[in-house]
Amino acid sequence: MRIIQASALIFCLVAAPGVSLAADAKADVEKAYAAWDAAFNKHDEKAIGAAYVTSAKLLPPTHQVASGPAEIEMFFAGLFAGGVTGHKLEMIDAGEDEKVVFGTAKWSATGKDKEGKPSPLGGLATHVFERQADGSLKLRLQIFN
């Protein structure tokens, strides 16, 4: 039944004049990025963990894969303990089709160098989201360098 409902919704969105899934995806990804940045900048690993589906994977530059919200929370708690602050995602692009919502972004933050002085951090990130029943997005996959 859910498949029929989802198919009908997708058909209506695609067939409706003036409706753009790409535009919706970009706005939705921007909203998800803003919420994620807010949680990070509050050092709220629980809120960050809640942004991921139960089967999510986080692939950070450390090459230590985190699976599921609890492991992802621990990864970010470690960053917070290390003094990382001021996270910002700047969208490069976003889009969606019937199955996938994606976002790509530049990320920046401030860490600490060996002497404990502020040091800029940054790189690129790829995000694959699952659209939830309420229309919100949760992360299935996050890769960053």
From TrEMBL:
Signal peptide feature range: 1-22
Gene3D superfamilies with a match to the protein in the record: 3.10.450.50
Keywords: Signal
Keyword Hydrolase: no
Residue span, SnoaL-like domain: 35-135
Highest taxon of source: Bacteria
Name of the protein: SnoaL-like domain-containing protein
Origin species: Bradyrhizobium zhanjiangense
